[in-house]
Amino acid sequence: MDTNVINNYSRLKATLFLLPLFLLAAIALFLYSQNALCVEGYIQIQKNSFFFINQHLGQFPSLQYNLTQFGDALVFLSFLSIFIVYAPKIWEALLSGSLVSLLFCSFLKKIFAIPRPPVVFDNESFTIVGKRLSGCTSLPSGHSITIFTILTVLLFSFLPQRLKYKTLWCLAILIMGLLFAFTRVGVGAHYPLDVIAGCILGYIFGLTGIFISRNYKIWGWIGNKKYYPVFILLFLACCILLVCRIINENLMIFYMAFVSLAISLYKIIYAYVKDKK
User: Fold this and answer.
1) For residues 213 and 249, what is the distance between their CA atoms, to the nearest angstrom?
2) Domain limits, the chain
3) What is the chain's alpha carbon radius of gyration, rounded to the nearest angstrom?
4) What is the pLDDT of residue 277?
5) CATH class of this structure's domain 2-223
């Protein structure tokens, strides 16, 4: 599996960055044309779309709250923990992309300083699911960045070669990503453009993670079994964190993430013990 992932990465060109950069530029030009490059204008231009999306998605609060957890790296990466054993190259890209996204996301939130919907609108006028988020950290959506950073790595890791299957695979990833990302509007945490910008940035960061892992051997040790005890301890710590989440919120998605992580923990311990015999 790892060989196929490496071969897929080797085919990628830097021109893949052009489309997302064009889309970001198009959003900026649109906001400029609508005199919405200020905080007040940015919020007002999305007011109607925010309430519309929130009203319709908010009708399924439990589903929205479970799906929005995919924007939590602990949850999403738990489902992918098995690739430590079978395709460590994926994790090299995931780690690089995640670190880049973490750095830029924090920086951009401070730069734009857009107040979140619960700070601006009457909290009784729209649906808020889960914790009420306040502060001026709305743009971009960190959850959306995390979702698309991870999905972009998966997109190119398993990209089919035949055009028909490639198209279906890309559409499936895109639809899944947008479904997860727009839950941020559904739970009342972000405006639509926060999410769209986060998705585009996540794609860029995921692609950046792939290029870093392809050109530099920063994380080359991940596939070495002698370092498996590091991941065993890490997975155990993550299992404990997920148990705490289950106790506090009792969401189905946390149970699923815990089971995935427990299976990966068993697999990695088995592989490590077997290698020592």
Assistant:
1) 36
2) 2-223, 225-277
3) 20
4) 65
5) mainly alpha
